[in-house]
Amino acid sequence: MNFLGASLSLCSVLLRVDSNPCVVPSWLLLPSQQPKAWMVEWASSANIVLQRSNPAGAKAFLCDHCGAQFSKEDALESHRQTHTGSDMAVFCLLCGKRFQTQTALQQHMEVHAGVRSYICSECNRTFPSHTALKRHLRSHTGDHPYECEFCGSCFRDESTLKGHKRIHTGEKPYECNGCGKKFSLKHQLETHYRVHTGEKPFECKLCHQRSRDYSAMIKHLRTHNGASPYQCTICLEYCPSLSAMQKHMKGHKPEEIPADWRIEKTYLYLCYV
To answer: According to the UniProt entry, where is the signal peptide (predicted)?
Structure first.
């Protein structure tokens, strides 16, 4: 189940668990307008019913683990069995990711809602989760705790290491449904799709030329008298990477940096994805 960005309002989702309907509480869903037509069509094909929250007078037996509601007590008891052992029965309806606690799920939902409440104390960039912030902080500390067993290369996070290992194993799990070409990394497939769609989401701030991907934009920027992708808004010095720009900014006195300064203002390109 993956319909990122989709949101349902004033509704609960009725999941068919065996023969017993399970009403997933509305706090799992993002606030928005009425369900779109495609949502209703998708739900129908997946045997999921979109409906208003509990009808007046209907009894609701509440699961104390995940908040799911049932119309019959025996259905609730059957459902509770899913919480035994190592199963993580609290899951996100938008992406299918599972969690051990209701609190963890609620924090995860902020990712889909676009909430970015975790702020880096080094560069003021914002992130949707503590995990994302923790991963980002390693770009400042230089910590690379994940080592490749094949070549010894080290990485900041486990997901990057997992993708790197595919270079050694030859695994290409991401396939284009347009031409069948396969890729090792998800972002490679997403970039490839733009060959078919013609989408060019990267725009040069200097001349407004568009590019399909980041690397092509960086090559283009160098045609502007060797410009690098990042330029200090205070002294106009170029930096070849985001980490270099962050290091450069530490050389400026605090009083030189405007109150509304953000690292994004140093980018010499715009990205519409």
So the answer is: 1-19
The first and second tokens of residue 5, run together, are 């960005």
227 CA to centre of own chain = 30
Partnered with residue 127 across adjacent β-strands are 118
Phi, psi of 190 (to 5 degrees): -60, -40
The CA–CA distances, whole Å, from 270 to 214, 233, 273 equal 10, 16, 9
Q: Rounded distance, CA 273 to CA 270, Å?
A: 9
pTM for this entry: 0.47
Tokens of 29: 């869903």
Q: Are 182 and 170 in contact (CB under 8 A)?
A: no
67 CB-near residues (< 8 Å, 6+ apart): 25, 27, 28, 102
Query: Cα–Cα distances in Å, from 10 out to 2, 21, 31, 51, 54?
Result: 20, 19, 8, 8, 10
Which tens digits make up the pLDDT trace of 69-126?
667 777 777 666 655 544 555 777 777 677 777 777 777 777 777 777 788 888 888 8
Nearest CA among 165, 160, 159, 185 for reference residue 173: 185
Question: 3-state DSSP: the chain helix, strand, coil percent, rounded to 5?
Answer: 35, 20, 45
Is 158:168 a contact under the CB 8 Å cutoff?
Answer: no
Are 249 and 232 contacting, i.e. CB atoms less than 8 angstroms apart? yes
DSSP H/E element including 50: strand 48-52
